[in-house]
Structure formats: C-alpha cells, structure tokens
C-alpha cells in the first residue's frame, strides 16, 4: 500500500506532531520563520555599518570585530544548551522566552554609550538568539511528515536567506538615514508581532525534569572563546600570548570531550557522529557558512574603502546572494525530496567554488555590478547545497533526536560564522597594515593591498567549497535510501490505525443493526 493513498497517513507519519495538527503546520512554519529570520538579520546587519562603528568609537578593526563575534559566540556557545533544555521543558517555551530577550537586548544595543557596552549587549542578544534558533528547526521537524520535510526545510532556508538578504540592506539604508544606532530598532516591531503570533500558534508541551550538564556547557563556551581570542591575538601579532591561549583552548576541548563521554545527559551526544553521513554533511555545512559569511564580512570593506560606495549601496550589493537563495532554496528542497540530496549538494558546492574563484579577478577598477554578479552566483551554489544538506541531516537521526540534530545544525552554522570573521580578518591583515584600515577611503597601494586581502579570502572559500563537494559524495544516492525507514514505520502505523477505525465502524454498524432489529 502506498502512503499517499491513505486517508489517515497524515495523522501518524513520522515527523508530524499530533498536537500541532495537519491544518496548523503551515502557520507554525510561518511563525517560526518570521522569528528565525531576525537571527541572521542581526548576524549580518552590522556588517555594512562595521566600518562606521569602528570610526565612530575610534577603535581598530580587530576591536570592532567583537561587535560581530560577541553576538555569534554566545549564539554558538549556548545553542546546544538551549536545544537540550527545549527537549526537557518544552521547545515552544524556550522559543518564546528567546523572543522576549531578543527584543529587550536589541533596545539596549541601540542605547550603547561605548564600544564595550555594545559588545556586551550584543553578547546578550546572541544569548537570546540561541534560545530561538536552537529549537526552531526541531519544531519544524515535529510539524511536518517526512515526505514533506525537504520542502518545509527549503522554506525555512528561505527565512534564513531572507534574513541574510535583509540584514545588509536594512543596515545600509537605516545607517544612512538614522546612524548605526537605528539598525537595532528594526527588531522591536518584528519581535513583538512574532511573539503574539507564536503565542497563539505554538502549543506548549508538558514540562519534564531537566538534567543539566553544566560542566559541559561551561567547557564548551570557554573553549570556543579561547579559540576565537587566540585567532584575534594572531591577527594583532601577539603570538606569545596566542600560544598560551591556544594551549588552553586545546586543554578545554579535551576536557569537554572527556566530560561528554562520561556524562549521562551530555549537552552534546558525541555518538551521533558515528553516523558517517551525518558527520560528513555537518562538516560540509560548516564549510559552506564559513564561505558565505567571509564574504559578508570582507566585501563591505572592499566596496566602501576601495570602490567608494556608500553604506546604502553596499547593503544592496550584498543582497545578491540571499535573494538568489530565497528563490532557489525551495526548489532545491523539492528536488532533494524526489531525487535525493547527493547530486544537488555536489553541484551547489562546485558552483560556489566557481563563484569564489571569479572574485579573484576583482581589481581596484572593478564595478559594483562585478561584485553583485559574483555574489549572485555564490547564492545559487549555496541554495543548491543548503536545503538538501539540511534535509539529510534532519532525516538521518530518529525523531526523538530531532532537538539534538537541530541544535547541532545551528551550532555548525554559527560556528562557521564565528570562524569566518576570524579567518577573513586575519587574511586581510596579512595583506594590509591594520592602521591603514582606519581610513574611510583607500587609494594607491593601500587599495591594491586590501583587494589582495579579499583575494586571499575568496581563495580560502574556494578551497572549502571543493572540500564540500567531496564530502557531499558521502551522501545517500537516492530518496529511497534516505526515507525507507520512515516509510516502513509509517506504513505499519497506518495499517494499525486503519484497522482500528474499520473495526470501530464495523462494531458501530453491528450495534446499530442489532438495535434496529429489536
């Protein structure tokens, strides 16, 4: 019996939450996408304004980077923690609490009196974002049956892409008219609207006893901070201290692995990575976000300091990749549902590599359109790659581990963003002296040096994209292999449900027949 022929299949298909219900799944996806969109918006909204912020407070690029890093590092450091918390006390409650925190911290960021205060408030904003992003994909997984999961995650990817697209555009336009402080205020109306929407749509699940892995959470955060701080020290040329913090980072990493292996309720279950397909696609997704976010970080400096574009035009140029991703991601998800993830993921990786290699041809005399077309091509590659990859990752693990898988995917994505800022900043400083970056516009050899730094960044991205292509070959060959275990379970449960319904109807008919015979 085919699943699609069953009247009751939508009730019990794996991946579909009975509480949410068939009719509410699209409302749930809309509500989650609206809130989730704010997270990438605020991961990219400051990129366009970062040159302005560094000049406003009179700080170096290495210091200004922490406006981005503090947000990303707390977002990354607590995603797994809140993902685990959502499994115990309700993913809907964690998401709603994160929405409230996000609105409050956005207001605080706009009122920051110093660069130090802005960095701290951005860190708190990342904490609230972690609460939202850690559970949102698991809520999508719960709401949709397995055969529709690729399409749903494709639409979810559109929300991420829309956030990345709107971030630079909003940041550039708002910064042009209201200054950099205004870029954080856009979260207030969106956040309040989405809270009201989600409060009505999301059904709160029953609370459970929470078992904390506090040592693992602390070790994870400290290790991540030390890694980023070490890369920042290398960027500033402080190699002696970088060696010390690097050794400490390795020590805390080993301590984290030891803690997770012996803990009964670890914040990260390392045994999940025994699934080779899950591990390969997780690593490839990490590389993809490094490639994408290095562009969002490095390109604004090239556009504003070398090509002399204003922040508004810079923001519009940066929308090239996300706009293409918004258009292609749902189609990519549907193709993956029908034919499997392997082919579109491989093609997406190669297209991304070609797009990044094309950017090595940029010079001090290039136009904004040259950058726009290269970024659009990069967006096409990312769209072909991300939806099939997310689909494979979410379908490789049992439904009861959906929360953990969602947390790992969010961690992978944001870890790529954190490292992207560090790698791009380091490569740019290899090509141009840090003190030259204080100038609003560069000319002569300084402009050539910054362009050379951008070339180093895109070359690293091209190498990572080729690595993604090889990792994607580990993926499943066709849809049948990906979904067979879910379809088998679905068929068995469908037969049981239909037998019960038929039995109930038969009993009712017999009772009514005996009643009328009397």
Give the secondary structure arrangement, pairings included:
Layout: H1 9-12, H2 25-57, H3 61-77, H4 79-89, H5 91-110, H6 115-143, H7 149-178, H8 187-201, H9 214-235, H10 239-262, H11 276-305, H12 311-318, H13 320-339, H14 342-358, H15 368-395, H16 402-431, H17 444-472, H18 479-517
Helix pairs in contact: 2-3, 2-6, 2-7, 2-8, 2-11, 3-6, 3-9, 3-16, 4-5, 4-6, 4-16, 5-6, 5-8, 6-16, 7-12, 7-13, 7-15, 9-10, 9-16, 11-12, 11-15, 11-16, 11-17, 13-15, 14-15, 14-17, 16-17
Structure report:
The protein is mostly helical and 518 residues long. Helix content is 78%, strand content 0%. The protein contains 18 helices and no strands. The radius of gyration is 24 Å and the shape is globular. The model is unreliable at 1-22 and 476-495 (pLDDT under 50).
Relevant terms:
single chain, disordered N terminus, 518 residues, mainly alpha
Q: What's a quick, concise take on this entry?
A:
The protein has 518 residues and is mostly helical. Helices cover 78% and strands 0% of the residues.
How large is the share of residues in beta strands?
Answer: under 5%
Query: What is the general shape?
Result: globular
Radius of gyration (Å): 24 Å
The H/E string reads: HHHHHHHHHHHHHHHHHH
Poorly predicted ranges = 1-22, 476-495
Task: Determine the N-to-C terminus distance.
Answer: 40 Å
The main pleated sheet reads as: none
Structural class: mainly alpha
Number of helices: 18
- What share of the residues lie within helices? over 70%
- Roughly what is the average pLDDT, rounded to an integer? 77
Number of strands: 0
């Amino acid at each position: 019996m085919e699943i699609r022929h069953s009247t009751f299949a939508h009730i019990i298909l794996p991946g579909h939450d009975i509480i949410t219900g068939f009719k509410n799944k699209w409302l749930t996806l809309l509500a989650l996408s609206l809130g989730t969109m704010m997270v990438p918006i605020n991961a990219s909204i400051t990129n366009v304004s970062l040159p302005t912020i560094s000049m406003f407070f009179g700080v170096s690029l290495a210091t200004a980077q922490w406006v981005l890093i503090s947000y990303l590092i707390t977002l990354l450091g607590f995603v797994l923690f809140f993902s685990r918390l959502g499994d115990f006390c309700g993913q809907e409650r964690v998401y709603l609490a994160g929405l409230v925190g996000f609105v409050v911290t956005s207001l605080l960021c706009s009122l920051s009196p110093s660069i130090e205060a802005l960095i701290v408030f951005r860190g708190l904003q990342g904490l609230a974002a972690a609460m939202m992003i850690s559970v949102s994909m698991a809520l999508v997984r719960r709401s949709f049956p397995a055969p529709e999961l690729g399409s749903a995650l494709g639409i979810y990817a559109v929300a991420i892409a829309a956030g990345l697209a709107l971030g630079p555009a909003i940041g550039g336009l708002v910064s042009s008219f209201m200054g950099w402080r205004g870029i954080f205020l856009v979260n207030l109306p969106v956040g309040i609207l989405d809270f009201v929407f989600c409060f009505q749509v999301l059904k709160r699940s029953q609370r459970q006893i929470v078992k904390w892995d506090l040592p693992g959470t602390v070790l994870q955060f400290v290790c991540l901070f030390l890694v980023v701080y070490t890369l920042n020290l290398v960027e500033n040329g402080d190699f002696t201290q970088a060696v010390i913090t690097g050794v400490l980072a390795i020590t805390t990493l080993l301590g984290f692995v030891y803690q997770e292996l012996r803990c009964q309720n670890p914040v990260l279950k390392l045994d999940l990575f025994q699934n080779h397909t899950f591990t390969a696609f997780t690593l490839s997704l990490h590389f993809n976000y490094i490639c994408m976010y290095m562009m969002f970080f490095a390109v604004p400096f090239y556009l504003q300091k070398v090509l002399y574009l204003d922040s508004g035009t810079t923001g519009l140029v940066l929308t090239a990749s996300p706009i293409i991703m918004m258009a292609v991601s749902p189609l990519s998800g549907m193709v993956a549902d029908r034919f499997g993830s392997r082919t579109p993921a491989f093609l997406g990786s190669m297209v991304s590599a070609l797009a990044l290699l094309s950017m090595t041809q940029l010079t001090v005399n290039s136009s904004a359109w040259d950058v726009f077309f290269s970024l659009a091509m990069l967006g096409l590659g990312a769209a072909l790659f991300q939806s099939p990859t997310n689909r494979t990752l979410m379908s490789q693990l049992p439904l009861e581990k959906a929360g953990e898988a969602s947390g790992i995917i969010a961690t992978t994505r944001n870890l790529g963003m954190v490292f992207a800022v560090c790698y791009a900043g380091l490569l740019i400083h290899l090509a141009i002296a840090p003190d030259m970056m204080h100038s609003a516009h560069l000319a002569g050899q300084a402009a050539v040096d910054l362009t050379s730094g951008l070339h180093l960044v895109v070359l690293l991205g091209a190498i990572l994209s080729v690595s993604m292509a090889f990792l994607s070959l580990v993926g499943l060959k066709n849809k049948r292999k990906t979904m067979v275990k879910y379809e088998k379970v679905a068929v068995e449960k469908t037969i049981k449900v239909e037998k019960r319904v038929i039995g109930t109807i038969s009993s009712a008919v017999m009772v009514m027949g005996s009643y009328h015979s009397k």
